[in-house]
Amino acid sequence: MTRRKRKERKEIAIYLNNRPIPQVERLKYLGIIFDRKLTFKEHINYVTNKCTKLIFTLAKSAKLNWGLNQKALKTI
């Protein structure tokens, strides 16, 4: 037993029709972002940022004295 971490090969050579398939850090497929370790951290960060921007935009347009009225905001 040792404290040394095992060094693993991070790149795997996969071929399709005698052509190598390149490895990527992340892949977006059908709107879901997959990363190298198949965790959803990248996807969650992406969706969170997108929702934050949308909420901020709605909050800016929904002021008491100016902006969209309540009926328009309910429609959105």
Question: Can you put this structure into words, describing what you see?
Answer:
This protein is an alpha+beta fold and 76 residues long. It has one domain. 36% of the residues lie in helices and 16% in strands. The protein contains 2 helices and 4 strands, in the order ββββαα. It has helices at 41-61, 70-75, and strands at residues 15-16, 19-20, 26-29, 32-35. The strands form 2 sheets. It has a two-stranded antiparallel sheet with strand order 1-2. It has a two-stranded antiparallel sheet with strand order 3-4. The radius of gyration is 23 Å and the shape is elongated. The mean pLDDT is 81.
Brief overview, please?
The chain contains two helices and four strands, in the order ββββαα. It is an alpha+beta fold and 76 residues long. It is elongated.
How do the strands and helices of this protein lay out in sequence?
Layout: E1 15-16, E2 19-20, E3 26-29, E4 32-35, H1 41-61, H2 70-75
